[in-house]
Amino acid sequence: CGGGFPIRLQTGELVAVALASGLPDIKDHGFLVDCLAGHLGVEAPAIDL
């Protein structure tokens, strides 16, 4: 299926949607989180499953 989530401004305005597909859903989501965190220079917390 893929993983994804909305990209919103601090005001809550929706400005984009990030999507990835090709891996199991949770790995697609993790890929997006890692890429965006790297781009923003922040550390994203890990999710224990």
Give a structural overview.
By secondary structure, the protein is α+β, with helices and mostly antiparallel strands. The protein has one domain. Helix content is 33%, strand content 27%. It has a two-stranded antiparallel sheet. A hairpin with a 5-residue loop joins strand 1 and strand 2. The mean pLDDT is 89.
Keywords:
alpha+beta; 1 helix; 49 residues; 2 strands
Number of strands: 2
Structural class: alpha+beta
Query: In whole angstroms, how far apart are the ends?
Result: 18 Å
* Proportion of helical residues: 25-40%
Return residue spans where pLDDT drops below 50 for at least 5 consecutive residues. Answer: none
Radius of gyration: 11 Å
Strand content: 25-35%
Whole-number tally of structural domains: 1
Query: What is the spatial order of strands in the main beta sheet?
Result: 1-2
- Average per-residue pLDDT, rounded, comes to 89
Give, in order, the helices and strands.
EEH
Let me know the largest β-sheet. 2 strands, antiparallel
Query: Could you say which overall geometry the principal axes of the C-alpha atoms support?
Result: globular
Oligomer: single chain
Protein name: Heme-binding protein
InterPro entries: PduO/GlcC-like_sf
